[in-house]
Amino acid sequence: MKRNLHLAIILISILFSLCLQLLGLMHIVPLYISSPILFLSLLVFFIYMTDRKKFKGF
To answer: How many domains does the chain have?
Structure first.
């Protein structure tokens, strides 16, 4: 349940940042603001998806 909620929040942030990026491409919002937001949301998504439970020893 908790993992699904995190994934939903991350996907909503990606959709929001994509919409913001489209506004940036139309010169409504500056690209230097919208591009890092898109990058960070995708970075968090990929880190979250590749995170595995790792055995750290005894």
So the answer is: 1
